[in-house]
What does this fold into?
Amino acid sequence: HGTIQVGELAKEMGVKAADVIRKFMEMGTMVTINQSIDAETAAIVASEFGYEVEAATVEEEALLEYVPPSPEELKPRPPIVTVMGHVDHGKTTLLDAIRHTDVAAREAGGITQHIGAYKVRLPDGREITFIDTPGHEAFTSMRARGAQVTDLVILVVAADDGVMDQTREAIDHARAAGVPIVVAINKIDKPDANPERVKSELAELGLVPEDWGGETLMAEVSAKKRQGIEDLLELVLLQAEMLDLKAAPDRPARGRIIESRLDKGKGPVATVIVQEGTLREGDPFVAGMTFGRVRAMLNERGERLKEAPPATPVEVLGFEEVPQAGDDFIVMPDETAARRVAEYRQRKAREAEAAREARLSLERVFEKL
Ligand code: GTP
Ligand code: MG
It folds into this structure.
């Protein structure tokens, strides 16, 4: 089977458990005698003692094995765009203008409380997926977990206010993530709007507009008056084209959890952004340390979807437990496999936690052994 206890491993090799534990420490890991380790790690440690153990693949790991798509499988997909910018510079209003809806007016206190994610279809059929974030936390925490979902950032800068702290932060985040920035200079309807000043402030930060000989695409818009929106979307699609975004639609879906909650009526629900493959009703899945089966999929308007191709955000019902934002979401062959992987991950997390707790008393454990 897939794991072995440290004590068992020592016994198999005919060495003292304390020596095995010490070896782990030398390798930078704290373990206890009763701790289960995976076969791969066991093989590495065993080789340190001169044993060549064939590393049996952990079955659960094998279930998660990922074969990247071949070039023939890849099809163009819509860009996933995150709107960032300083507080009150008009991110939500801009997305409203794009969607022709009115979320901002309905928000409590006018502050974005959660991530909204939706796919917009332009009159010519092209699509863009948007993510509206509260501040930068979602973006940052996901990047910290190595879970990048954004292809490009729309940086909203109010023309009457100019570059502010969170504008600079957003630029830093986008740069650290290697994500291109398209600038929306907003609120140009205001009497004190000064787009030229915004441009020079941005140029100082290295975002030089195209008409000044730079490379940064910028549009002047009024989200409120719905002016310049088509131009902005055109720039977004232009920038996206340069990225040549593709994904394989004809395989089991993989994606990321971008928000989650426990709904009184629906139970655990999460917004999943599909990054590869096509998600369908009935699909069994693992998500972080939980699992489930897609009972229903809804778009941001609450409409039921039968399938979700790459770059589609959907609210998924059918989780055992509430997953965490940033968790992966992987469709599995069947529910038994999904449950096994989730339980395997839970076990590993518990062991990691136990190892942390054991750390302080480890020195004493040593003396006893
Ligand atoms: P947070 O989510 O709190 O960070 O704010 P936000 O960036 O989403 O800003 P929001 O869209 O809530 O807009 C803030 C205020 O600016 C609201 O009162 C909007 O009506 C106003 N506003 C947004 N865009 C424009 C615009 O183009 N022109 C004018 N005059 N006002 C705008
Ligand atoms: Mg907002």
